[in-house]
Amino acid sequence: MRVLQWEDLDRLLVFINNVVGEKKSDSRSPLYTGFDQKVSREEEAQWLAETLASIERGDVINVLAQVRNRIIANGEVTKGTHRDTFRHGRLGLTLLAKYRGLGVGRRMIEILVKESRRAGLKNLEVEFLAGNVAARRTYERQGFKEAAIIPKKVSRIRKYFDGLIMSREL
Q1: What is the number of other CB atoms lying within 10 angstroms of the CB of residue 117?
Q2: Phi, psi angle pair for 12, to nearest 5°
Q3: CA pair distance 84, 72, nearest whole angstrom
Q4: Edge to edge, what strands does the sheet with 145-156 contain?
């Protein structure tokens, strides 16, 4: 696991488009919102440039997991953008299906929590599909507690799914 770098562009492009493919091929995918269409190299380069600038400013904490030069997961914490919420972070984590259940997500959460604390954040929140039992268990083991259920937040293939927000103090 390591910090994101500009040289990761092509590997990130493969990663994100693999995630899109996973979501499209599995109507029961636990992946949350987004990941609806493949991205171009230019789009990924723009995202990477903006993310690296946000990291440099201290607005984002980002970590990726790699196996044999292949990116398998990416996670980040985005700090609140207002003076009132600057000590609050929103965590997001995406992991390729093949690597779920192996402890990679748990370790990434541990790193993101540690780095968030070091950055002066006081609490974190994460949101995902309420039916994602594995994610819920993983976050609970890391000290997150249910904060809210948002009924029918996500609409996918003519079905509605509840969103779950969990949070923890640092």
Answers
A1: 13
A2: -65, -40
A3: 34
A4: 60-67, 70-79, 88-95, 123-129, 159-169, 145-156
What pLDDT was estimated at residue 159? 85
Cβ-based neighbours of 145, under 8 Å, separated by 6 or more: 166, 167, 168
The CATH code that applies to domain 6-122 is 3.40.630.30
Looking at residue 2, the DSSP 8-state letter turns out to be B
Q: Which two tokens stand for residue 118?
A: 């070091």
Distance separating alpha carbons of residues 78 and 58, to the nearest angstrom: 9
Q: Domain extents for the chain?
A: 6-122
Provide the pLDDT for residue 57.
Answer: 95
Q: Which residues of the chain fall below pLDDT 70? A: 26-34
Burial status of residue 162 (CB atoms within 10 A of its CB: 0-12, 13-18, 19 or more):
middle
Q: How far apart are CA 140 and CA 145, in angstroms?
A: 6
Alpha carbon distance 58, 63 (integer Å) = 14
